[in-house]
Specification:
Strand order of the largest sheet: 1-7-6-3-2
Distance between the termini: 53 Å
Number of domains: 2
Radius of gyration: 20 Å
Strand content: 15-25%
Structural class: alpha+beta
Helix content: 25-40%
Length: about 250
């Protein structure tokens, strides 16, 4: 089934999902509360990210850039019918995620497709979100990579860029700061209409040399929305310009 009843980035409770896809009351609850289930031809995954599930199991689900590293239920194997059904779906695999297991609301991440599988117990799957019928503003066409940092601190560059592109981190940043560029105030929706809706890059404020292996990134403290032009200009200098410095450049130039 190719319908797209959910919007990427929006919040949904399980009750919202029931209503949207018309799940009869007698078929609600139960298996829906266990992490994943199939309804008609579609699969629904409710993933706890960076937190344990309500049953206390913690499978360390996490985003790796735009991809989701996800673990099945306890003792699941890749050969089990439910896992095989997800790997070869007849319909969609709608994936929702949350970072607080006490929050009834999940962020809709998108219609997942299998990128990689691991024959472990529990089974591990890397989900990617490449459905072109969905709008994924967190997936940007280019990555800003400093050639100078590919040797010294190359791993840190990858970690930072991966976190900038995490949909959960991006959402928390934009929910707080909005969709206007933090440097020039450009808004893609205002300029381009529907095609520019929800689009913006996210920039990391902390210089790479200050990031330690155990550094815990806070999306509100450490990330800012910026347009692609300003993002490129911030990285024009090494170390990167601060947002305040680039603002001054714009003011002086104009």
């Amino acid at each position: 089934m190719k319908y797209k009843p959910f919007k990427v980035g929006d919040l949904y409770s399980r009750k919202d999902v029931y209503k949207i896809i018309n799940v009869p009351k007698e078929k609600q609850g139960g298996i829906w509360d266990t992490g994943y289930t199939r309804y008609n031809n579609d699969w629904f995954i409710f993933a706890n990210v960076n937190t344990s599930g309500r049953t206390g199991h913690d499978y360390q689900n996490k985003f790796i850039g735009n991809d989701l590293e996800w673990y099945g239920k306890n003792r699941t194997k890749i050969t089990q019918g439910s896992i095989q059904g997800m790997l070869n779906p007849n319909g969609n695999v709608f994936i929702f995620a949350r970072e607080d297991n006490n929050n009834p609301l999940f962020t809709y991440i998108g219609n997942g497709r299998v990128k990689e599988t691991f024959d472990t117990i529990p089974v591990k799957i890397i989900w990617q979100f490449t459905d072109h019928q969905e709008n994924h503003p967190e997936i940007i066409p280019e990555e800003i990579v400093s050639e100078d940092s590919l040797f010294e601190g190359g791993t840190k560059t990858i970690k930072v860029n991966i976190y900038e592109r995490s949909p959960m981190a991006r959402k928390r940043c934009i929910d707080h700061y909005g969709l206007n560029c933090s440097v020039c105030s450009f808004n893609f929706y205002d300029k381009y209409g529907e095609i520019g809706k929800d689009f913006i890059h996210v920039h990391h404020l902390v210089p790479l040399h200050e990031i330690k292996d155990v550094y815990e990134i806070d999306p509100i403290r450490d990330l800012r929305p910026v347009c692609p032009n300003c993002h490129a200009m911030l990285h024009k200098r090494k170390p990167a310009l601060s947002i305040e410095e680039l603002k001054e450049v714009i003011i002086v130039k104009n």
